[in-house]
Specification:
The protein has helices at 7-19, 30-34, 38-41, 46-58, 60-69, 84-97, 121-124, 133-147, 150-159, 185-195, 218-226, 266-278, 298-303; strands spanning 101-103, 117-119, 169-172, 178-181, 204-209, 240-244, 251-258, 286-292, 311-315, 322-325. With 331 residues, the protein is of the alpha+beta class. 35% of the residues are buried.
Length: 331
Amino acid sequence: MTSTANRAASAIVFVAMYVGAIGDRKPIRPSTVTWMSDAVAERRSDADRRGYYRAAMTGEKAVEAFCDQIGVTRGKIWYANNSREPVRDESIDALINNGAVLNIRTDLSTNSPLARYVLNPDFAALFSPDLNDLEFGDAVARWRDAHLSVTGRRRAQLLRDPARNSESVSVTLPGADTRTLHPGPSSLILKGVAEEFSKHLQQPNILFISQPGEKVNLLDGRDLEAMGIPVDQNSLLPDCLMADLDDGRDEVWFIEAVFSGGEITNERKASLLAWATSHGLRAEQCRFLSAFESRTHSEARRALSTLADGSFAWFRDEPGYVLAWDVIGPN
């Protein structure tokens, strides 16, 4: 319960209320919370709240410009930029499990920077200033009974289940197992990776596929732990981890599906490599792949200059080719 009863959870709820991220309106992202400061939070007019939301959806420089525009010394922000993972993967995720926060963009990849989180309107109603003490107590009791019970938590789980969406993406994994992914272009790229790219490996095996709000599938996590790799849900894991179990190759591929950001950069590669070697994998076993929709897609053109040294790029519309980015070796 600490992840829903701490300062981070309070900050998430406050910022969502501040900008009006309720129901299907004005979704926020973790940075909307981390970039807030006490000085900005004290500005409560509708114009100030709308202005902060517009700026936060653009970037931190826009937030700084907004503060200059309204004559506010921004001061210390609530969370450092490198604290986004605890905000997102601990408190936001726990609030989703309790039905207090909704992810209304399950089509987005886990590493997409786009906004997706809103308050459940029923939860937001608990903060109505019109409630007196007795009415507030009754409302909280009703919320607790509806959402924090065993069946209530199951309802929250089902909201995250991609199999309940007719537009979900069905993937045939190597070995003929199937997996249902959330709707969206990132899932289509992952489908191509699992069904097409994997054909170029000698003995492909999917170790895990990540989904929004579920970094590691329960079954994948069990398999990883059986291999001696403990799974920390807060780890900076890729969208997909695939192994080539052939004795002559013995490779592990770290794969990101890139539709709205998240390609493997040198910094990202270093983080993934540190995770891999700390869990018993050898650096020479590791391969790094950024998977795109097409060479002509805007994300592929943008990401080309940022791809990590010694990494690969693959394109769903040209499944028989792979692009290698590396230094030129000796002749």
